[in-house]
Please model this.
Amino acid sequence: MFRGLRKTDCEKARGMLSAYVDGHLTSKECEAVESHLKGCEKCRHELESLRATVGILHLMPMISIPRSFALERVEPLRRPRALVVLRAATAICVVLLAFVFISDSINIFEQPPVYIADESSNTMGTFQFPTSDLSGFMEQMDRWLSGSFEGEGTTGTSIPVRQIEYGLLGVVVILGGASTLTYLRARKEGSA
Amino acid sequence: MEETELIQLSKEGDIGSFNRLVEFHERGVYNLAFRMLGDAQAAEDATQETFISAYRALRGFRGGDFRAWLLKIAANKCRDQLRALRRRPIASLDSMEEDGVSLIHAGEPPEDYAIRRELGREIEGGLLSLPPDQRLAVILSDIQGLSYKEIARVTASSIGTVRSRLSRGRARLRDYLLERGELSP
Model:
């Protein structure tokens, strides 16, 4: 009759009686319930009392409204100022982060190589990258990050690109989180 | 004028058209709120807040069943009111009638009204004894007459969940009425 579950047949049938009353069972479920009801007086009583309950509920009157709920004027809710500020700040930081990241990936911060003419011979000069500039700093940063930096010192012209990137990323995450929380709160209050 | 046309005009800011929609649906929304909360004042507040929120959120309504959309807002407002009601006692059916809420049918004999009122009070108590999710499913199905699909839309749940909540809610209500002798065993 009822397969696959550990419940007793009566428990399974009773769990389906409500949907059976509404005609919301599949034909297979319906057959199983009807087959069980034929041999179970207790469940037939359950069905009758459930039908009576639903019948009483259907007879419940609609209550008259105490007054009209028509609206006279509805002020549009303004978005909270904090949300506007947070969103603007997040957008600015995202743009800055994107700018720094793209610039870094195309080496825009790197100083151009210096042409050094080889005066001792008649051969062509060579291009050399200045070691005390940004690329040097990046090497130092890599060493510093890997723990082998020994305080060689950087020149005053270096730009700490990665620090800026990490810093901006952190700010974006914090501002984005705060914006989301503010938005969710405002939405719950119906003003977003 | 058709509902879709009234909705469109309301979206454009025509409050008169929106009030026509309010007229169509205010009774259903108020009844849901009253049955959910069992308190006339809280039901009034929830109903008014439902229509204010609906007017503000109307631009986000992308068509479909307007009544289900409205009842979904009403169900959320009822949840908010239930939280607030936990802090103060619920008014009885008697106090509701003192407040001027009419339950009597036109031309109904007083004896019939008394029996119906007594039964109504028991059912009201039984509904309030149910957990809010089951209460909402029972009210929407058996008092408001919504289909399983519409209830699923209002409660943002699956048809299986609706079926289960309805089954448990009705069974609990039946047991409540049996205990009080309103149903013969």
Q: What stands out?
A: Residues 15-37 of chain B form the longest helix (23 residues). Residues 10 and 176 of chain B are 44 Å apart (CA to CA). Residues 1-90 of chain B form a domain with the Rna Polymerase Sigma Factor; Chain: A fold (CATH 1.10.1740.10). DSSP finds nine helices and no strands in chain B.
